[in-house]
Structure formats: structure tokens, C-alpha cells
Amino acid sequence: MKQMLEGITVVAVEQAVAAPYASSRLADAGARVIKVERPEGDFARNYDKLVKGQSAYFVWLNRGKESVCLDLTLEDDRAVLDSIIASADVFIQNLKPGSIGKLGFGSGELRRRFPRLITCDISGFGDGGVLSHLKAYDLIVQAETGLCAITGNAQGPARVGVSVCDISAGMTAHAAILQALYHRERTGEGASVQVSLFDAIADWMNVPVLQYDYSDYQTVRAGVNHPSLAPYGAYRCSDGKDVIFSVQNDREWVNFCTKFLKQPELVRAPGFADNMERLGNRPPLDEIIKSRFSDLSSDKAMQELEAAGLAYGRLNEMMDVSQHPHVRRVTVNTPGGDINLIAPAAIVNSEPASLRQVPRLGAHTAAIREEFAPGARKHAASGGLAHSGLESSGILP
Questions:
Q1: Which candidate, 108, 94, 90, places its Cα nearest to that of 181?
Q2: Neighbours of 60 (CB within 10 A)
Q3: Pick from 46, 130, 196, 337: CA 20 to 30 A from residue 359's CA?
Q4: What does the pLDDT look like over 99-148, one tens digit per residue?
Q5: Per residue in 145-183, pLDDT tens?
Q6: Residue 31 in contact with residue 37, Cβ under 8 Å?
């Protein structure tokens, strides 16, 4: 796969998920990503031991990076980091609010010293506001943004099953960094980017918030039903398997009634004629739909939904997803051996993904200390002028 960001150097003082997500995508595109870890390592290395003795989170988000262990409470190690940043294009950090500034690497100071540098600070609640000083992890932000309140079912709220706030913040940071790199290409100017987990998910919450703000509409926790479209959800078939389907517009509603339910009289029946009426009469509508699905096997139900021109799918478990015919895999080398990751979503020029190794803790510390030792060589003072490929520092054996 073409390495579109080859020649770009990224320094990431990072931990957990959000910042590593952003930097991993830059590494996938060919950037040199130098991951700065505490001597004990990114704590995400120890989230679990379920992937050949390694953390699933860590091996997913740290392929293609160089690991250097620095104790930033020590002056000599801060000098090494300063030297690395002097040659960097991008600096990413997601330490506890205020920590990076106390160490002398606040984005304002770095941008003053290195005008071409792009800095990206990832936090829980941003740089200002009453909660900005707090540590913030994914579930906390899911709760604060109201995401938990609209997730779950009538029995209570629930956490979204993956670290969606962290991932959303990482995606947002990745996009903003690429925009900043493009801007710098045209103007020569760097940029300061701030991304918070709260803002990233608050943006995703626009639909339920707008519905509440302008109509007092309260999004109802609907389990595996859509909260504002009906019918749209999962229904049990005669073989005990669940099929999920969707009606998105009036044409599909007509097809659903006439071709699947075999009840054309429902199309304009009072209480069912449009989506808002159907939302208000979901229980009786669901009883009609459940009765039809209970007469069909899941395969037969899906055949008939497809014949009616409706979108459908299976309510899969992890075993099903692991073996799903549409899941693309890519092999990645890790300290524990090769693993098969689900491939990155973007396919560029129809080429298969090719991901570099996951580093063991401190795998590149000696080489990077030698390369960036203050005075060892002249580094670019404006950022983005001196680079070294991953191979120059040695990679995981």
C-alpha cells in the first residue's frame, strides 16, 4: 500500500485509546510515529492479556510505531523529547489536563518555538469550563453527554459496547491533523488542534438534542429498535434467530405492508400512515410484525425482506462477526507473535492494507536516544525538516 504520509514525523506522548487511535492511522499511512511511554509503559498495555498474552486495545492501536521510554520528570529525558519535537511535523498528547504544560511542552509554547509544528491536545472536557480539570475516561463521557441515557432499554441505560468516545475523539483528531497538514502544505504555517472526548460525542448527539430543543421530543431507550424510526428493529424468527430490518420512507412502508406482511390495508390505516404515527403506536405495530416473523425461519424472512426491497441483517454474536464473510483481515506482527486484525476501513487504490509491527515496550529507546541526543546532530528548529524512517531506528525483531 502506498505510504502517503512517508516523510512525516509524529511524536505522541500518549496513553489509552483516543490519541493512540489518531496516531495509529497516521502510522498506517506511512508517517514515522514515535510513541513516548513512561518507563512502566502505556497503561493500555495491561488492560487485558487476551491476545497472546497482550492487551487487545494495545495491539489494535499501536502497530507501526516506535516505542521510546522517557521519564519526563528528568531533565535529560525532557531534553531528548525536546530534540525529537524539533524535528517533528506533528505533536500529539493526551495526558492528564495540565500535565504536559508543567513539563514544558504546552502547545502554546511549542507553537511559538516551532511555527510549522502541528500540535494536537486531546482531553476529556477541553481546555476551559468547569469540568476541564478532570480526568475523563470513555464511560464517564458517555454518561455526561447523555449517550448512556438513550442507549439501553426500558429497564435502564447502558454503555455503548465499545469505547466510542475515545474512538470518536481519535477520529476527529486524525481528520483535524490531516487538515492542518494540508493547510501547512499551502501556507507553511502549523496549527494548534484541541479535541475533547466530550465535544466529539456531543457532536454525534445533535439529532436527539435538536429533537428535544425544538419539539420537546424525548428519545426513548429502545434496545435494538430505532428510537425515532418505525418499524426499524430486531424480530425473532421461528428458528430462534433474530433478524433486523428497516423501513426508511413511505415507499418502503408500502412495500413492507403489501409484499412482506401481506396486509395492504395497513398502508394508510389510522395510526400507521406515517412515521410519527407509527412511533406513537409502536406496541400494536410490533405485535403485527412479531406475528409475521414468528411464522418464518430467519433465512425465509430475509429472502422475503430482500424481495420486498428492504434493508435487513442478522443480529450477530461475536462468533458470527469473527467469521463474517465481509470482515477483512490483515496480519500484524506483535511481541507475542502474528495476529489477525480486522483491517482498517479505508481501501486506497484497491490495495490491501499492510501494517507494520507492534513494538515491545522501549524497543526503540536506545536508538532514539542516540539519534536525538541533544547535540548529537543538528535538528530542524521549525518542524518537519528532518526525518528518519522506521527502519533507521531498528524495528521489533
A1: 90
A2: 19
A3: 196
A4: 999 999 999 999 999 999 999 999 999 988 898 888 889 999 999 999 99
A5: 999 999 999 999 999 999 999 999 999 999 999 999 999
A6: no
Give the residue among 13, 172, 177 at the shortest CA–CA distance from 85: 13
In a domain, 219, yes or no: no
The domain tally of the chain equals 2
| 122, three cell numbers | 486531546
CB contact at 8 A, 127 and 121: yes
- Whether residue 210 lies inside any domain: the answer is no
Give the length of the chain: 397
* CATH number, position 130: 3.40.50.10540
- Does the pLDDT of residue 358 top 70, yes or no? yes
Listing DSSP states for 168-235 in one string gives HHHHHHHHHHHHHHHHHHHHS--EEEEEEHHHHHHHHTHHHHHHHHHH---PPP-TTS-SSSSSEEEE
Q: Enter the pTM of the model.
A: 0.89
**221 within a domain of the structure (yes/no):** no
Within 8 A by CB and 6+ apart from 127, the residues are: 97, 121, 194
Q: Is the residue at 93 inside a domain?
A: yes
